[in-house]
Amino acid sequence: MLMTKPPSLVTARSRPRRWLVPALVVGLAIAVIAAVAWTFRSAPDVSSTTYEARPIGLGVVEKSVSATGAVKALVTVDVGSQLSGLIAEMKVDFNHPVKAGDLLAVIERAPFEAKAASAEANLTIARAEVSQKEADVAKAQAQLVEATRDYARRAELAPKGHASFQQRDQSESRYGVAKAELASAQAKLEAAKGTVSLREAELRKARIDLGYTLIRSPINGVVIDRKLQPGQAVAAEYQTPVLFQLAQDLSQILIYAQVDEADIGLVKPGAPATFTVEAYPDETFEGEVDQVRLAAAKISGVVTYTVVIRAKNPDLRLFPDMTATVRIVGARRENVLAAPNDALRFKPAGAPDPVKSKAATALWVRAADGTLERREVEIGLKGDTATEVLGGEINAGETVIVRAKRAADQGKN
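User: That's the sequence. What structure does it adopt?
Assistant: Structure tokens below.
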């Protein structure tokens, strides 16, 4: 018997042959349309955009650190008083130049002169007492000599019957007493000499205190602050009160700048620095890093380090405690191919992302036909305004795009 397939099965298996080709054509058309759309989407749209461009060439690339600090003198000395008393005279005023040893102020001297006179009188009395004790010692020595001779004589005569043993014993007792009196006189003399040394020390101290009433400059410099006025009292019981503040030499100054911990690695001694102060906003002063201090300061969770910058101040226009805005050059490259940082940040609208590679950074230039052309480059030091170009598809003298400006914005400022 001849077997035949069910009609339904034949129909189901033969159906794909009817719609397979049209479906493939439609899918291919969609893919082509999508590819064309992506191509137009990826191409930079330059029809309604103008671009700002800059030439690149050999130049200097600098990486700097910014900070703020205070101007200080090379050496600042606080001059105080070791004595309590009234200020009798002020010999100098603000901005007064002084030399080492110059008289700055006078504390009322009368009480200290009286103490010195009293100490001198006590010393005179003590020295007189020494003279008296020396005389007592001489007298005791003479008495001992006499008692010694008498005792020796009676000790010799008593056994022979020319003197009694009682007389010998009495002379022996007088000898012992004379010897003890000499020792006592010598001890009193030593005590008197000790008193003289004490009175001499008291006199020296009184004279030193009297000298301290004359406040003198320890350095050559200028008076930058004066704390008290004549007639005011100075209390020096617990700490030395400051009367003057002197700056040794303002022809050179220091700036104590606070640098954030994230930037301190760029700062090295000898690095060049520039700074400005509010008093001269249009002028930039130059200096260099003198010291990077290891001690950190932590305020509100922010860690900073003190960087000391030395600078010249020949015309004395920079004053102590002025606020300085400092720029420290942490790294510098000279005579290198430098591209503006804006050019490295620029990317045309619709441009595809760069392929990740060693030279994935790109610059854009305008080709001869007006389209934008991508140039991959390898970069080195990234500075404040420009970046070092180590190599790649760019040459000195070429013009690179730094930013785009829409046609609708051309007339706007």
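The chain has four domains: 49-61+336-408, 65-73+249-332, 79-107+214-246, 110-212.
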